[in-house]
Amino acid sequence: MAHPLIPDGVVDVAEQQRRDEQRWRKVAVAFAVFAVITGVIANATAPAGFSVAFATLVVSAVAAFLRPPVGLHLIVFFSLVGDTATSPWWPFTKNMSSRESMFFVSDGLSFTPLEVMLVVTSVAVLLRALSDPTWRFRRGRLLLPLTAFSALVAFGFARGFLSGGDRTIALFEVRPLVYLPTLYVLFTNLFTSRRQYRLTFALAAVAIALQSVFALSYWRGLAPEQRELLETLTEHTASLANDLVILFFLGLIAFRGTRWKKWALVPLLVPIVWTYILSQRRAGMIALFIGLMVLFAVVFLRDRRLFWRITPPIVLAAILLVAATWNASGAIGLPATAVKTALFPGQLDEADQRSNFYRELEAYNLWFTIRVNRLFGVGFGHPFLVVRPMPDISFFAYWQYLPHNSVLWIWLKTGFLGFVTMLYMIARAIQHGARSAMRTVRSDDTAMIVAALGYVLMFIVFAYVDIAWDIRPSILLALMFALCADFVDLPDDPPQPVPPPVRSLVAS
Predict the structure, then answer these.
(1) Cys-Cys with 279: which of 167, 224, 233, 467 at CB 3.0–4.6 Å?
(2) Do the beta carbons of residue 203 and residue 73 sit within 8 Å?
(3) What are the tens digits of pLDDT across the range 227-257?
(4) Is 148 found in the same domain as 132?
(5) Are residues 284 and 430 in the same domain?
């Protein structure tokens, strides 16, 4: 019987304790069932790591559903750990049909754990929007160009799909281009404070360093003759992620960032720089030069005295280093090789000149295909035409679908308007990033914004000479877009929710 002084709908303390006890019993039973299922799977799949991957995905999905911002943190971290060259066993960005992955389930499952997390996080946001009348969609500053670009990507996919293109390859090509706007919308609507962006950026740096450790472990396990045959240690785009962390560290030094952050980055930089040198990616080194130019430009605009104090000695030291290693090969000569590639291609060694010649032939074939389909492109799932024979690189299954020039690739797949929209999207991100770099007050935030702005420029430079529209670079690009355009308008801490009014237990 209800107490006469307790309003309807309000329970007494004993009843509330009983309900809480029942709720926690259900939670305990659910976790026990989950543990039993995980144990059974582990016993059936040992010594494979499927049970670990399964448990990681389930726990991550539950966390993403209950706290969608946590889902974004996990998506960024788990996506940046992994590399098809050095750690193909990590499953987060691979289909569950990939047999080398820890998460192989069936040959017919063509979706990834990353996509599972994206769906769960998006559903949680949608349910909150439907149930919370105070929720409002936040329109990021780059939403309009991203929406236009996404619409033309959808047009390219439909064109390829309806004109007989290879549907499996089309899905493979378009995936990173879909992740980009999806993650950007989630970042701008779930992150309500600068602290959340800082945490995500820190997790990205840790994940990049962890992957570098995996790469070095793989390299140490190779025989000396296998090391000699390696063209590159990691995925081509891994150098872009390494560039980001290196640029952030240099920004902390230039803008006098927090001392503990600089010291905390040192152990992360050791495997990152080591892996970077062993990979010997000329495109990555050229991109880093561009990032350094961005850093110097922001320093010049914010503090002229500091610029003239640090820039001349750094530039002089760089010139002396390049001159001293001009004829060196391997990792020592990487900076000089990058300079030769950009300014003196005739002085490259035979292997690099062959690589350049292949790119020239490929670019000719790309332009020929674009001229045939100038306005609408060929659509996803269609190869470019080969009118000038090229050296055989058939070991790369998608050589005729994913050319090295990823800037022209957008024109090839989405048409002229898609190409123009991509350039506009990048230009707007650079504009907002430059303005944000001048508006930030905290030195650590300035270094982070400069790294984000540098990444956008490094990405487009890298894309001009190498395959860039991959999953991990697209995830990082979405985060950098949000940092460039939307970070500075947020408060440091998330707004505190207003508690509902407390109903009195005493009748008036």
Answers:
(1) 233
(2) yes
(3) 776 767 778 788 899 999 999 999 999 998 8
(4) no
(5) yes
